[in-house]
Amino acid sequence: MNVSPAPAVAAPPVPAGPAVRRRRYLLCPPEHFAVEYAINPWMDPDRPVDRAAALRQWEGLASVLRSLGHRVDLLAPEPGLPDMVFTANGATVVGGRVLVARFRNRERAGESAAHRRWFTAARFRQVRTAAEVNEGEGDLLPAGPRILAATGFRTTAAAHREAERVFGRPVVSLRLTDPRYYHLDTALAVLDDSRVMYYPDAFAPETRRLLRRLYPDAILARAPDAAAFGLNAISDGRHVVLPDGARGLAEQLRAAGYVPVPVGLPELRKAGGGPKCCVLELRPE
């Protein structure tokens, strides 16, 4: 795989202490990253993108994940797929079973085949491409015994039932209503098997009621932190990697006993992506 050279950068300081469980993540270097179209409110093709800076910022994220003790696998970037860096959207992996995404927008459709090739070559035994439109971990977030699944902008309600059949876990349907939070992972993050954080105003009233019932001790993000993509975060159960602009949310996490690990991804943010968008968790069980 050819990756454009970039100056080495030091990873942000990481608090000491072991992760709850070593994770395995799939990332894709932003070698072909660009904003060539607009499929969410954050994207503006007329706004310049610094690809070299994007690569340096992405390398910082990968370094942080490795420094926390996690394994990082790489998906080779392909020309003509500028959003391929956002691997979270390419599939959902639970118990070693892989459900490859079926993208709503034609601009990203080619990413499905690229992900399927990677999983096949990596010898995942149960790999299937979704029959219904779903955008991977963007909208399907495993949370302990259940899967939290969103609809409203990208993933269909029928895809929730398909995920339930494929993974053999109950799927809880949530409805997004604010187009700025077009994927579930921009409005909600799973912190551990029993706790989440989310931005209530991104969801329909009935969904807010459901989330309050399921997660009475959830961390509720404030509007500025949600707009800073603070909920597009990666948690190993102790450390929470989140955008460095979500300072208030970092304090809330610290008060709740988690260790916030801020990272900066301003170039990738131009496409409506944050740390979690760049990371697909490969769950063996």
TrEMBL record:
Molecular function terms, GO-annotated: amino acid binding; dimethylargininase activity
A Pfam family: DDAH_eukar
UniProt signal peptide: none
NCBIfam families noted in UniProt: DiMArgaseDdahMtb (NF045659)
Protein name: N-dimethylarginine dimethylaminohydrolase
Superkingdom of the organism of origin: Bacteria
Protein source organism: Kitasatospora cineracea
Annotated active site: 183, 277
